[in-house]
Write a structure and sequence with these properties.
There is one protein chain. This protein is α/β, with parallel strands linked by helices and about 170 residues long. It is built from 5 helices and 8 strands. The chain has helices at about 1-20, 25-35, 40-45, 85, 100-110, and strands spanning about 45-50, 60-65, 70-75, 90-95, 120-125, 135-140, 145-150, 160-165. The strands form 2 sheets. It has a 5-stranded mixed beta sheet, with no helix packed on it. A 3-stranded mixed beta sheet has the order 1-3-6. Residues about 1-40 have low confidence and may be disordered. The structure holds copper (II) ion. Copper (II) ion (CU) binds next to loops. The site of copper (II) ion has 7 residues, from loops.
């Protein structure tokens, strides 16, 4: 009984140790990742949510993250309209991007869901959604700076845009 208790406390001590120094063997590192997925792993990760609707609006105009932070961006189309008439995506653009010029290019990329192939202005983007759909992307936040995000569906960027601030 005593020895069992001892082993148990020993184990939990080890666990705490692992939280602070993630060394150990492959096996224990794997275990740690699973066990602490909702605590440790997420301390440096963030989930952001944004909604687009049938009124051609995003419900958020600004996000703040830290450089290198693992970001999961969840995009929800909370409207009902089809993506052919009210499609929404979330496109993160590099600082200094000429947005009207980019939007022009996007219009020409209809067959690629309005994501132009011949550009280096995109940091990341989601797929295009219709009403009731949801998607997410996970990426490492880029270098510090102020980035613009838009929906690249034709005519949407002037209404559907915001700032993605990396500190
Ligand atoms: Cu849109």
């Amino acid at each position: 009984m005593l020895s069992a208790l001892f082993i148990m406390s020993c184990k939990s001590d080890k666990k705490e140790e692992k939280d602070t120094e993630p060394a150990a063997t492959e096996e224990t590192v794997e275990t740690k990742t699973e066990n602490t997925a909702t605590t440790n792993e997420n301390a440096d990760a963030v989930t952001l949510e944004i909604e687009g609707d049938d009124q051609m609006k995003f419900n958020k105009s600004e996000f703040k993250v830290k450089a290198g932070q693992k970001v999961t961006l969840v995009l929800k189309h909370v409207g009902e309209m089809d993506k052919s008439v009210m499609g929404h995506n979330w496109v993160l653009l590099k600082p200094g991007t000429d947005i009207p010029a980019f939007a022009e290019k996007a219009i020409a990329a209809k067959d690629n869901d309005y994501i132009p192939a011949d550009t280096d202005a995109i940091v990341v983007h989601t797929k295009l959604l219709g009403g009731g759909e949801e998607t997410s992307i996970t990426f490492d936040a880029p270098a510090a700076g102020t980035y613009d995000f838009i929906c690249s569906f034709p005519g949407h960027y002037s209404m559907m845009n915001g700032k993605f601030i990396v500190e």
